[in-house]
Amino acid sequence: MLSLTKWLPEGVRRRPGLVRNVGTLSRIALSVAAVLTVLSVPYRLTQQALTPAKPSYSFRKVSLSGYANSAVYTTNLKGNAIGTAWNKPDDGFHPFLWRGGQAVELETPAGAQDTIALAINDNDEIAGAALMADESVVGVVWRGQKVFSTITIEGHDVFPHGINNAGQVVGTHSEPG
Hints:
- By secondary structure, this protein is α+β, with helices and mostly antiparallel strands.
- The protein contains 2 helices and 10 strands, in the order ααββββββββββ.
- The strands form 3 sheets. Strands 1-2-3-4 form a 4-stranded antiparallel sheet, with no helix packed on it. Strands 5-6-7-8 form a 4-stranded antiparallel sheet, with no helix packed on it.
């Protein structure tokens, strides 16, 4: 058994009660050290398992059939992406979802001139914005390819920037114009 008493000052070693307590403390310290050692093994393994591999990157052309231009804004953990396609800016913007190697156009809200998709969560719920015929901007939430909801604030333009996995949308609003 490891003893800490040899490192104690001479006066303390001569007091049996203290030495006995130091011996107990040394056993407790060894027990704690053993527990910490056992606990640290999974931690180290976990750390090694979480060490990412060297990153690699690739680029892919993503486009929506029938449109000359496209822009992808973000992806989710499934690798699905959202973006907007257009021919000429005056022709209007059209949101799309890129999933499984194909781009599918998202439904445009009734009365919208331009629509863009800006954010996607891991459930493939999408948030974006639509410029309406009256020049107001409303937030849009899509589920699948269909408009699920529009977000309006009386007298304000609404610009969603994100949607979490619970379907909660965040963004900004401003006075029109």
